[in-house]
Structure formats: structure tokens, C-alpha cells
Amino acid sequence: MNSRWTPLLTLFAAIFAVLSFVEQGVALEITGHRGASHDAPENTLVAVNLAWKRGADSVEIDIYLSKDGHIVAIHDETTKRYGGPNRKVADQTLAELKSLDVGRWKDKKFTGERVPTLSEVLATIPPGKRLFIEIKAGAEIIPELKRVLKQSGRKPAEAALIGFSYKTMTAAKKVLPQHTAYWIVSVKRDKQTGVWSPGIDEMIQKTKAANLDGLDLGNAPAVIDRKYVRRVKRAGLGLYVWTVNDKNMARRLRDAGIDGITTDRPGWLRKALAEKQTRIDMEQSAGICQDDGRGDRANAPIPAEETASAGAIP
């Protein structure tokens, strides 16, 4: 191909890509899993701010309630993994939790990072972005969660609620109906029968019964295709997937039509998806590559061997 046509083809490819996404209603939301946790200590302000800096559309954090009633961002039930005592977060006061160094375990350069409160994390949200708040505690945290969200001055659209506990998420949605709420489900496949459970119909029924807004699925890339996504969307629900750190898997999930991907590497994944899409659009515009040799695999389930990087704990 004559090199003088390259700039023009690049421009046409970019325009074509934008128009295609607009026509299909595709707008993949990239969420930083516990912040930019691949490069910074999870659930800390440095990880959250790094995710924003690297272009994440949203950030996911985990919350527990301290002994004295404060909501803090931390994933584990105890502080042992972060270099603290093997004690439950719920059995420690905010002052005790703030005294812990939760950065050094990741790298010496993060020495001195502290456990942030939910209020501190909410204050970091840039305009047009949002926070996914995963409720790790039980329903006892909901009254304080409501108070903190109201006190923060954040709009409901800036803070979504997620959680594994169906009971807790049902209660949270009742108390905070203006906030979008997604039920986290870890989908598993029976090794003998090959059947995935819970089934999609069961999850849709339960999600709608609780007035929740969608599903956030883990271990699910192998079963998600366009047909699967359409069933969820036709029920009026959103569909998100965690935790994906493989660019090929992410692209297939995006092409299947999911709403968002949670990843440990939000900046890297956004760049990887953009670069690959631009290359494909250029090749197709130039008539170089109409098929990658694998046929239309966007409609096909992703092979199980490609799901290795999609099973992290949210």
C-alpha cells in the first residue's frame, strides 16, 4: 500500500470506528479494580488517584464498618495481609486502622499509605466519573452509608452500589433507591455436566425481584456471548464483568456488548483496546484483512483456557 494514503486511511478508520460505536450504542466502561491495583496498593488513595490519572471511567473499592462506626475502604475481613494484626476490621477503631501502614506490603515506595475512609475516596471523584462501592459488610453498614453519601454532596449517579450478598443488596436498594445497584455473582461451571450456575434466567429473575439495576459477573467470560448479553439487556438490566486483565478477552467481551469491565490495569487496558481497534479498522478500510482467520468469534463463547486472568476476587 502506498504510504501517502496512510494518514487519510487512518482518519477514515477513526471516523468509521466512532460512527460504529455510536450506532451500536457501545460505550465500554473501564473500572479500576480497587483503584489501579496492579501498580499501587489496593483500596488506598494513591491507587484510586492513579486510576483516575490513567483514564479510568470509574473506580471500584470495598468497604467495611469499623468498630466505632466509620466506613473504611479495605478488601479483606482482617488486616493481616496488609501488614497489620490478624484482627477483623470490625473489631478495630478508625484510629487503630489509620495507624496501619497499608502501602509497604506492595512496595517500599508506598510506605506510609493509610486506610482511607469512604468520605476520603468520594472526594477524589473527577467530573463525569463514578465510584463503585462494594459492600463487604452486612446490612448494618447501610444507615452510615446513606449518611456518608448524603454528606459527601455527590450525586447518586456518581456512586453505584455492588455486593455479593443478595440480602444486603436488596436492603441497600430499598434505602438508597436513587443509586444504581448491581448484584455480584461468581458464575461457576460444573466439571461433569458442563452446566454454568447460577443460570442466566435465575439471575435475571432475582435481580429484577430485588429492583436491582444489573449484574456484575465473575469467572464468566467463557459463557458470555452476544446472545447472553442480549438476554440481560432485554430484561432491562446492565451487565458488567470482573476482573479482566487480558486484552483479547476484554475485546471479545466488549464486542459482545457488555456495559463495563473491571480491571487491575485500567490505563493499560484502555490503550490496548484502542490500539487493537484502530489497527483492525485500518486493515478493513484498506481491504487488507476482512477476517482474522478465526471467523466471527465475537458470537462464540470464549474458550475456557482464555479465562485464566478473569477469576480474581472483586
Account of the protein in words:
Helices cover 34% and strands 16% of the residues. It is an alpha/beta fold. It has a single domain (3-65, 130-310), classed as Phosphatidylinositol (PI) phosphodiesterase (TIM Barrel, Alpha-Beta Barrel), CATH 3.20.20. The strands form 2 sheets. The chain has an 8-stranded parallel barrel, surrounded by 6 helices. Helix 1 (6-24) packs across helix 10 (266-285). The longest helix is centred in the last third of the chain and has 20 residues, at 266-285. The radius of gyration is 21 Å and the shape is globular. The termini are far apart.
Looking at CATH, the homologous superfamily is Phosphatidylinositol (PI) phosphodiesterase
CATH topology: TIM Barrel
Main structural class: alpha/beta
* Secondary-structure element order, N to C: HEHEEHHEHEHEEEHEHEHEH
What is the 3D shape?
A: globular
Computed over alpha carbons, the radius of gyration is 21 Å
Number of strands: 11
Number of domains: 1
Side by side, the strands of the main sheet go 1-2-4-5-6-9-10-11
Short précis:
With 314 residues, the chain is an alpha/beta fold. It contains 10 helices and 11 strands.
Highlighted features:
34% helix; 314 residues; TIM Barrel; 10 helices; eight-stranded parallel barrel; alpha/beta; two-stranded antiparallel ribbon; 16% strand
What secondary-structure arrangement, pairings included, does this model have?
Blueprint: H1 6-24, E1 29-33, H2 45-53, E2 58-65, E3 71-73, H3 94-98, H4 118-122, E4 130-135, H5 142-152, E5 159-163, H6 166-175, E6 181-186, E7 188-189, E8 196-197, H7 200-209, E9 214-218, H8 226-234, E10 238-242, H9 247-256, E11 260-263, H10 266-285
Helix pairs in contact: 1-10
